Amino acid sequence: MTGPAKNLPQLFLEAKRWFDDALLASMRAAGEQPVSIAQGAVFAVLDDEGTSISELARRIGITRQTAHQAVHGLIGMGLLEQVSDPASARSSLVRTTAEGTRVHQRAQTALALIEQVLADRIGADAATALRRALSEPWGQPPSVEAP
């Protein structure tokens, strides 16, 4: 028995999980330290010169406490470090260590290969169209009234 068609947010979530699962399995198979999805998300939004934990939380869309936990787990693994913010004596920034940069570059290479697997499975034209559609500006989220 089939249910109602999945809406786009459900499909996006399943696609995100597919990529997350593939990346985590690939990194584990390569012998890298396991990281959580939240920890992996930190790397995706981290500036080269460093980023505050509050800004990381905002970019990822998680609480500051969750970002703090993810960051400190990565610091404990030797992948990130916390340094003084040169613009503010009361603040600190989080940035990658040399090991964190190596692991992040390996993850980026794995993601490119995973994207190629997806293109092989759904077709290069479909993968290109998907990337193009998701790269278009969507504007501000609308507020609609359901009938």
Secondary structure blueprint with pairings:
Layout: H1 8-29, H2 37-45, H3 53-60, H4 64-76, E1 80-85, E2 88-96, H5 98-122, H6 124-135
Helix pairs in contact: 1-5, 2-3, 3-4, 5-6
Walkthrough of the structure:
The protein is mainly α. The chain has a domain at 34-134: Arc Repressor Mutant, subunit A (Orthogonal Bundle), CATH 1.10.10. The chain contains six helices and two strands; from the N terminus they run ααααββαα. A two-stranded antiparallel ribbon has the order 1-2. A hairpin with a 2-residue loop joins strand 1 (80-85) and strand 2. The longest helix is centred in the C-terminal third of the chain and has 25 residues, at 98-122. The protein is globular, with a radius of gyration of 18 Å. The model has no long low-confidence stretch (mean pLDDT 93). InterPro entries: HTH_MarR-typ (IPR000835), MarR/SlyA-like (IPR039422), WH-like_DNA-bd_sf (IPR036388), WH_DNA-bd_sf (IPR036390). GO terms for molecular function: DNA-binding transcription factor activity.
Helices and strands, in N-to-C order? HHHHEEHH
Number of helices: 6
Q: What is the percentage of strand-forming residues? A: 5-15%
Provide the structure class. mainly alpha
Top CATH class of the domain at 34-134:
Mainly Alpha
> What is the β-strand count?
2
CATH superfamily grouping of the domain at 34-134: Winged helix-like DNA-binding domain superfamily/Winged helix DNA-binding domain
What kind of sheet is the major sheet? Answer: 2 strands, antiparallel
- The Rg value, from CA coordinates, equals 18 Å
Give the overall form: globular
- Annotated CATH architecture of the domain at 34-134: Orthogonal Bundle
End-to-end Cα distance, whole Å, is 28 Å
Mean pLDDT: 93
Return residue spans where pLDDT drops below 50 for at least 5 consecutive residues: none
CATH topology of the domain at 34-134: Arc Repressor Mutant, subunit A
Spatial arrangement of strands, main beta sheet: 1-2
Helicity level, as a percent range? Answer: 55-70%
